């Protein structure tokens, strides 16, 4: 089998084609990351007049801070819950739409629309729905004897932010799951049906294993989304409350840095958050990918 190689007339043309991406990576990732790493080793006085190089003291203080450790636990619960909820609902919708012969495109369009909503807007929408004073869901829950109040109850607040963040991501997951279902050969499913396999058994033994590459990809994307892109949802709904019950790591970086003006600690937290996401991605690609059937 012969392979074709692209040849360039100019020696510098390949570098010119790569230059825009390299420049964007340097300006928007490498440079901010290096600045955060440098800032994490500095400490300023309360008035910002003097800066002291303190090496790793900011990191040591973080891991001795009970509030920061609680924020890490909150982030773990929030990320896992958001990922599971958004992916499971999206998979359910994708399977249901994939069975439709008519109106499949219309339903797909309606399900994709929420992805165009900004995270802050999504947070405000669900804040109104769950508002104890004017929201419809607290009114319905009150009829079942449950007094909903995310302003006072930590569990209610976590449910609110998880639902709002997952709702925002369902559309993205739905598109990839639907594309994955379309790529599965129908002959395999029809053969299993002829052999007498039930619809549930066909899904778990044929369809879901063949969706493992899509599921693996979405799992990585959703974990990163839950840890980074949900700042707007938290800020618009609970602002980390009540009693820091929904104060995830990315929101704590904002509160300590921009509200508390503790830039050194905030930079150290951003470095730790970046390391956590990189480590999770490496673990997922190194060990979990081995169980993926391509």
UniProtKB/TrEMBL annotation:
Every ABC transmembrane type-1 domain range: 72-284
Membrane topology field: Multi-pass membrane protein
Pfam families: BPD_transp_1 (PF00528)
Keywords, sorted A to Z: Cell inner membrane, Cell membrane, Membrane, Transmembrane, Transmembrane helix, Transport
GO cellular component, one term: plasma membrane
Bilayer-crossing regions: 12-31, 76-98, 110-129, 157-182, 203-228, 267-288
Gene Ontology terms: biological process: transmembrane transport
Cellular location(s): Cell inner membrane; Cell membrane
Reported function: Part of the ABC transporter complex UgpBAEC involved in sn-glycerol-3-phosphate (G3P) import. Probably responsible for the translocation of the substrate across the membrane.
UniProt subunit comment: The complex is composed of two ATP-binding proteins (UgpC), two transmembrane proteins (UgpA and UgpE) and a solute-binding protein (UgpB).
Record family assignment: Belongs to the binding-protein-dependent transport system permease family.
Protein name, as recorded: sn-glycerol-3-phosphate transport system permease protein UgpA
């Amino acid at each position: 089998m012969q392979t074709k190689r692209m040849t360039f007339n100019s020696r510098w043309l390949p570098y010119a084609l790569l230059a825009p991406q390299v420049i964007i990576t340097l300006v928007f990732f490498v440079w901010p990351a290096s600045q955060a790493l440098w800032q994490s080793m500095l400490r300023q006085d309360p008035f910002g007049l003097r800066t002291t190089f303190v090496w790793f003291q900011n990191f040591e203080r973080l891991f001795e801070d009970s509030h920061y450790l609680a924020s890490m636990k909150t982030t773990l619960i929030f990320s896992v819950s958001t990922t599971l909820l958004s992916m499971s609902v999206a998979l359910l919708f994708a399977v249901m739409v994939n069975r439709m012969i008519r109106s499949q495109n219309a339903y797909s369009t309606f399900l994709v629309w929420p992805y165009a909503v900004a995270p802050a807007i999504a947070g405000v929408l669900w804040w109104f729905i769950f508002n104890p004073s004017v929201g419809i869901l607290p009114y319905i829950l009150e009829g079942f004897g449950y007094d909903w109040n995310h302003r006072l109850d930590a569990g209610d607040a976590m449910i609110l932010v998880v639902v709002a963040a997952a709702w925002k991501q369902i559309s993205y997951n739905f598109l990839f799951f639907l594309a994955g279902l379309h790529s599965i050969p129908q002959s395999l499913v029809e053969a299993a049906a002829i052999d007498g396999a039930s619809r549930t058994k066909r899904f778990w033994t044929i369809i879901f294993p063949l969706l493992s590459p899509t599921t693996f990809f979405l799992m990585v994307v959703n974990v990163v989304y839950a840890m980074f892109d949900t700042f707007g949802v938290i800020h618009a709904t609970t602002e980390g409350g009540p009693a820091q019950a929904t104060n995830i790591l990315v929101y704590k970086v904002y509160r300590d840095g921009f509200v508390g003006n503790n830039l050194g600690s905030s930079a150290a937290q951003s470095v730790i958050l970046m390391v956590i996401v990189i480590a999770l991605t490496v673990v997922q690609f190194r060990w979990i990918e081995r169980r993926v059937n391509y």
